[in-house]
Amino acid sequence: MSSIAFIGLGNMGAPMALNLVKAGHALTVFDLSPNAVRQLTDAGARAAGSAADAVKGADIVITMLPASKHVEGVYLEQDLLGQIGAGTLVIDCSTIAPDSARKVAQAAQARGLEMIDAPVSGGTGGAAAGTLTFIVGGPQAALERARPVLEKMGKNIFHAGDAGAGQVAKICNNMLLGILMAGTAEALALGVANGLDPKVLSDIVAKSSGRNWATELYNPWPGVMEHAPASKGYAGGFGVDLMLKDLGLAAESALSSRSAIPLGELARNLYSLHSNGGSGGLDFSSIVNLYASERD
Ligand code: NAD
Q1: Closest atom, ligand 1, to C-alpha of 78
Q2: Which residues does the entry assign to the active site, renumbered to this chain (predicted)?
Q3: Which CATH code is given to the segment(s) 3-161?
């Protein structure tokens, strides 16, 4: 069993870290929020006073932070890489800009540390169930070292390519997710405005050609799926501002590669309007509230 430092215990990091504790690994954890740390210490993890304290003596360091600035802030600006012992494997599971992932990976390599980017898909439900998909960028040998630990948190592990490639694939996936969630919300609002029951319409779509991850597992309409964030006041889940970040990363990737992403840009504008209206902290399926006039 490995000694693992886990930094970033939010909606995703906490359930992922809990699965590692349950698998018998010795976890030392750190988060800026004491409440986030408490759930892990209750389960048997050791709390560290800082990220630098957490990585002392670790075989593996895992980070699950919101965005590029946090990952670069921790590893480079706070020089966490300089505190990590030789031979330690570094795994960043956050969704960040591919260039940031490459920059941190190069800095890790320069210090003799193996590092992979391993962003995830599957949502908070997948994180709790240990069924996440890991999308890895970096050396194959480092992925093989990480695999036994990733398997305790996920079911599917893909090697997308070199450092940063995991992030490119993840950004493409999330652009599609943002478009599909907005489209699902729009279709449900249209049906309800024309007299349909949202549950009946959702059941029909889930078995018809419009089905997608939202209609199968994450319906945006309140009351349709008991366990979806929509039925819990859009609390927890995947924040609107995190989706907005990912659609921004897609826009940056499109600019740098001269790609056209008209639907991705439209989705980014929809989530931006929604966030600016005060919903940035809600789950992203609350985009359905942009169509609220049809619901009233
Ligand atoms: P979150 O905002 O719930 O959690 C982030 C955590 O990081 C918070 O607890 C915060 O206190 C902590 N943190 C921030 N800066 C820190 C620092 N310097 N040191 C220590 N801790 C720090 O976010 P989340 O939903 O868990 O998402 C994390 C990452 O995973 C994001 O990049 C997101 O895009 C990605 N992701 C999220 C989901 C989802 O469904 N929520 C799914 C797939 C991928």
Answers
A1: 18
A2: 170
A3: 3.40.50.720
